[in-house]
Amino acid sequence: MLKIENLTVTYPDQTKGIDDVSLTVMDGESVALIGANGAGKTSLIMSLVGVLPSSGNVFAEGIKLSEDTLSEIRTKIGVVFQNPDDQLFMPTIYENIAFGLRNIEMPEKQIKERIAACLALLKIEKLGSKTALKISGGEKRLVALATVLIMEPAIMLFDEPTAFLDPKARRNLLQVLNALPHTKLIATHDLPFAAETCQRSILIKNGKIFADGLSQDILYDAQLMDKCGVEAIGVYERKLK
Amino acid sequence: MADFHSKIAEIYSLEQLSSQRSYVHDLHPLVKICSTLVYILCVLSFDRYTFLGMLPYVLYPLILIILAKIPLNMICKRTLIALPFCLFAAVSNVFLDRATAVQIGWLAVSFGVLSLFVIMLRTLLCVAAVLILVAVTPLRELTDELRRMHLPNIFIILLEMTYRYIGILLEEASTMFTAYRLRSRRGKGVEMKHMGSFVGQLLLRSFDRAERVYQAMKCRGYALHDFNHIRNPLTRSDWFFLLVTCGFFIFLRWYASPYNSGRLF
Questions:
Q1: pLDDT by residue (tens digit) across B32-62?
Q2: Do B216 and A74 make contact, defined as CB atoms within 8 angstroms?
Q3: Which H or E element spans position A20?
Q4: Alpha carbon B262 to its chain's center
Q5: What's the rounded Cα separation, in Å, for the pair A145 and A44?
Q6: Chain A interface mutation, best of B4, B163, B220, highest count of A Cβ atoms under 10 Å
Q7: Do B209 and B215 meet the contact criterion of CB atoms below 8 Å apart?
Q8: Of B123, B167, B133, B162, whose CA–CA distance to B14 is shortest?
Q9: ipTM of the predicted structure?
Q10: Pair A81, A87: CB distance under 8 Å
Q11: What's domain A2-82+154-240's architecture?
């Protein structure tokens, strides 16, 4: 379970990226974070793993985020970045996936077994020995997901998971995410994707929660979404007709 | 774009070799570091006119290349990159040290020319030894071992980060260069008048990207404090390699070579 209490992120220029946000994500629940550009979605995600300094309380699986629990929290929460290239900084795909496990001093034999299982789960076994430079955008996204999944986190945070993906890769990712049993918080602009992966959606405006409810209620509500500068599902199609 | 990508792939190709399996790859990283260190010290300990005494040291890189199945041309190409630098450093000797060292038929070889060749050979041998070390040992194992050897952590972090960010810098440069080329009048290189802003932007973008990469590393448990200092024990094979190679280098340096006291022939 992920519990956030009065979380506030203040940038060096004193503007608030996140302003007094409180929410709870239950075990196994998938929640979409929706909002216009600059609403605070990425800031919220980064503050949950202590990358951005914040005030307030964050509890992941009962562990409170603090300087002392940072490494423990980061094994409980996995973050998939918006740009997979940011996560693929080692020479080979194998090394990239092994990076986190080596940081927790896992024996090499065990690392090898876990990586083989993870690559098989995502159906990207053939990529193991390749470099990140020679794979497609969709494959990069899956490898970035593998780098996080391999750590077996209880909670997964996704920042724009469908960015840079073609429709086929997007569909593939959708199937992969829906098959994962983890607690998921997905920040996205891709509302149809959010509707297909998350039962619950949270609408963010200027760093504050504007609406929180069932995806089918929020994502199709043109008036509500318009107030946050986001276009609800089907609005554009209706305009075309 | 493809050129930049091939350059990045070239940079990391040595490390990709390090994940292969061979007798040399399987050795303990400490053994490989120590034997390389002893090799370099022995090569550097020759005086500036001893050319032939150094020649048997060519055997070490050659044998390792064969044992580790490393492409010879890959090491040669990279080793030759160091050549202009040592040439530049040693070329003045040719003009300053003109006394004849040895007469080979009609050809008089001066001490300056001799020292030029010694410096070149010395540089090539040392660079080749280090390149082979990198090609047979994953960078992570190398840096872990350097930490266990109590080298200052800041140097090791700098080494790791520099190595990792070279590719990122090139990638950013590649993207910017492509965008520039598509809109520039000449369609070739960056014009001099745009160079300042191009390099400045590249720096800012790389800084930004490096920050995100570091965040990604931190999210996956990269911590500088939790390092395991316990070293895996050396096997018999490790001890054998260490004793044979170091013994061979020292033997060649001080006992076997008649050319080790400054004599050429």
A1: 999 999 999 999 998 888 888 888 999 999 9
A2: no
A3: strand A16-25
A4: 28
A5: 19
A6: B220
A7: no
A8: B133
A9: 0.70
A10: yes
A11: 3-Layer(aba) Sandwich (3.40)
